[in-house]
Amino acid sequence: MKKAVIETGGKQHFVSEGEQLDVELLGAEKKVEFEPLLVIDEGKVSIGSPTVSGVKVQAEVIEQSVKGPKVVAIRYKAKKRVRKTQGHRQQKTRIKILTIS
User: Which residues sit opposite 77 in a β-bridge?
Assistant: First the structure.
C-alpha cells in the first residue's frame, strides 16, 4: 500500500489511499491534487527536495466548512474583576485520498 506525506494549509499530513481527513479550508474545487514531500511504496522510500517529481496525490472534496474543535481563549487579571472568554471554531474541508500515483 502506498503512503505519502502531503503539505496543505501550512501543515503536513501522513496519508494513504482511501483515507479521509480534515484539512484547512480549500477553494470550491471538487478534485484536488497535491505534490507529495515523501512517498513510501512497499518499503521503498522516495524523499523529495522539496517534492517528489512525477508523483501526484489526488483527492476528492467530500464536504466544505466542517467545523473543527472549539478553542477557548481566556484573559484574566487577578484582583481586578476582569475576565474575558472567547471561543473559536476553525472551518475545515473534509477530503478523501483517491490515488497516489
Answer: 82
**pTM of this prediction exceeds 0.90:** no
For residues 89 and 67, the answer to whether their CB atoms sit within 8 Å is: yes
3-state secondary structure of 56: coil
Please check whether residue 74 lies inside any domain of the structure.
Answer: no
DSSP 13-26: EEEETT-EEEEE--
The one-digit pLDDT tens for each residue of the chain (101 residues) are 899 999 999 999 999 999 999 999 998 889 999 999 999 998 899 999 999 999 999 999 999 999 999 999 999 999 999 999 999 999 999 999 999 99
State which residues form the domain around 22.
2-65+93-100
In a domain, 14, yes or no: yes
For 19, list phi and psi in degrees, rounded to 5. Answer: -85, 145
Q: Is residue 71 part of a domain?
A: no
Q: What is the distance between the alpha carbons of residues 35 and 9, in angstroms, rounded to a whole number?
A: 13
